[in-house]
Amino acid sequence: MDVLANLGRSSLNIFRGMGAALIMLLQAIIGKPQPRKSFPLFVRQMYVVGVQSLLIILISGLFIGMVLGLQGYTILVDFGAEQALGPMVALSLLRELGPVVTALLFAGRAGSALTAEIGLMRATEQLSSLEMMAVDPLRRVVAPRFWAGFISMPMLALIFTAVGILGGYFVGVQWLGVDDGAFWSVMQSAVDWRDDVMNGVIKSLVFAFVVTWIALYKGYTAEPTSAGISKATTSTVVTGSLAVLGLDFVLTAIMFS
Amino acid sequence: MDNLVELQDVHFYRGNTPIYQGVNLRVPRGKITAIMGPSGCGKTTMLRLIGGQLKPRSGSVQFAGQEVPSLSRKELFELRKRMSMLFQSGALFTDMTVNQNVAFPIHEHTELPREIVDTIVKMKLQAVGLRGAGQLFPSELSGGMARRAALARSIALDPELIMYDEPFTGQDPISMGMIVKLIRSLNETLGLTSIVVSHDIHETMGIADHVAIIANKQVVAQGSPSELLNHESALVRQFLNGEPDGPVPFHYQANDYLEDLMVRKG
Amino acid sequence: METRKTEILVGVFVAVTIVALVFLALRVASNTDITRGSTYTLSASFDNIGGLKVRSPVKIGGVTVGRVTRIYLEGEYYEPVVEMQISTAYDQLPETSTVSVLTSGLLGEQYLGVEPGFIDDGIMMLQDGDRFMNSNSAMVLEELIGQFLFSQGDN
User: Fold this and answer.
1) Could you list the residue range(s) of the whole structural domain that residue C96 is in?
2) Count of CB contacts below 8 A, A vs B?
3) Ordered domains of chain B (ranges, CATH)
4) Is the pTM of this model over 0.80?
5) What percentage of chain A exceeds 70 in pLDDT?
6) Rounded to an integer, what distance in angstroms lies between the CA atom of residue A213 and that of residue A110?
7) A191 SS3 class
8) Where in chain A are the domains?
9) Which chain B residues contact residue A124 at CB under 8 A?
10) Distance spanning both ends of chain B, measured CA to CA
């Protein structure tokens, strides 16, 4: 009976948490838009969330593409199918690695920073003080960060994928000697704009939504102590990464089967 | 007497723990009201009730004749433009300079042109003696300076009521003196109403016109400082004189001391 | 100025994204999908379609002109029927045309090859919704080997 009661209690807690998170998000993003005031805030967050994640995305994308080129080549060359290197690199990046690895890196780089920042704003009473100044912290603090995360992560995923394909090209064509023309033309005939590129973009939009949402909610509800903030930050990375991997399976099953 | 804020029979619970049981408080307009009491008695909670950040379980909280807990979110935000709060930590926005911090509420709630806002910011910073520190970030300020900068931000929109949450805690005697002087002078020159929450008896009794003492989940006494010093309640006298034992016991509730020791041996 | 620098860098970020998107669109993906424009639908029935799938290409002389859109079984003998969309640029296929399930290379993917038939006075062009009259099924490796063995036995 205790087991059942525990199960019931924890699922109720999970549902309550999700409900509270949903209400927070809706309160933040629904309402009369004030472009003159919120656009500069949004640009500022695009810088913090997007531009500052650019370097790690470029470097990881390049290396993952290069590794794919190297690994793919050594496997495919045994079957005499090294022309298939182009589609292999492109498809794995477009469909899976681009959206997923970007989302994981984003959760670790930008998501944890968002949680810690908002958690600290709560701990130092900055959120309370906004409320007392008759400024809604959800609209002022949470909303611009949400939009910046939601928009910049798919952008980062596109950049990651493009750089990764170039990395695969450098290793496969320039180093290992796969034919230049075959690399691109076989890739082009195998990659479909709507099926592969657009589905990848849809995936990363979903991941962006979920990861940013989790990061903001964890920060907003963090216990205002140093232990509480560090717990919330860890929880953002763990929950965010697990959510991305789980959703990736579901989305892949829907899109590609 | 004309009261700006009035609490009547307020009951407030945190979870299932009662914080207030039947609190009555009045804050006379244009005066400095001090709320004092031992730590943990919920003095800050009182300010949050007045600001509408918390809702009481029952009872009435009135600000300028309006019932705060029953206001809609929009009405509450309108009301909050007329009051401001100085937080214990200052709560300056760490990603903005002092100037931008002070300008923040003005930009948020008015459509004034930049030059006028800059002028207002300079005037407010001059009032707290920090006009020269406008370009600094909060991390570059000392604790006392941060509190004064936050005070400049609190008076940026000329509120009717300003609430100070523990303004003296953790200040050296010099900055404490500065803040005491500021609270006094701002109250006189701007004609606003102040509520000071504190347990620094000496400083608070020095500037307050009206004092309320909270203990045992209630306001046990309120009146002018001189009235309270001669109060008949032992509790009030214990608090104001800082005696270690009395109606507020030195020992946390426990079972009999001797018995406790014996049990451990057995 | 702080905000100016931020704005410029966000601008660079957006520009890099656009470059990446253009690269993916032009260099990586085939944006010459034949079924993007206006198409018409034809169908064909086979004995066996082998490994043909939805979205497999339909080719004339090796040039892709359309894609398979639907595969289902029909009638009391459960004959496989393949529906395909073909670009209206190639709407002059006579009804004598033949469609075959072919394989690109020895182990490659399977596709539909259309062989346009002869044109004569009494011959109509295939219209939207029509069915090919002549079709060749997929060659299944096991059947081929079986036939080869039996023919060896006859000799």
Assistant:
1) 34-146
2) 41
3) 3-82+159-177+186-262 (3.40.50.300), 94-158 (no CATH)
4) no
5) 100
6) 12
7) coil
8) 38-256
9) 89, 91, 94
10) 63
